[in-house]
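Sharing a chain and its predicted structure for anyone who wants a worked example. Both blocks are below, sequence first, tokens second.
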Amino acid sequence: MITEVKEQLIKPRPRLLAQYLISSRLEQLPEGVEESDLFSAYASDCVYDERDVKLWRRKWRDIPVKESSRTACDTLCATLKESYPNIYTALTILATMPVSAETAERPFSLLKRLKTSAAKHDDARLVDWTRSHELSPRNTG
């Protein structure tokens, strides 16, 4: 069970490895993870080029960590797409990933409430209930 927990929580997932391209995290690559792994989850959109990564590291080397970008969005703003196309693509994908699964889970939560309500109430009341609850972040209760 401990191995399973480590796999799920501690081991970085391939789709999140691009976070180590963020300027403030360049030197924090976990043990056992290669630079080429940073691009493995995005293979259909960009490719690993050792020269690009060396130039990328060189660009951020002389900038103090306190002054470097701390988020994918900030790093994207400081990146020329033409100079680092693969890094730019990987960071763009990373920046557009949902932070949580809440948005995807909300419809399922509503369906569960509908099913429970249908079992407890008659159809007329269920129809009224569904009209009063929309799929929106402000009406999740």
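Comments welcome. The chain is about 50% helix and 0% strand.
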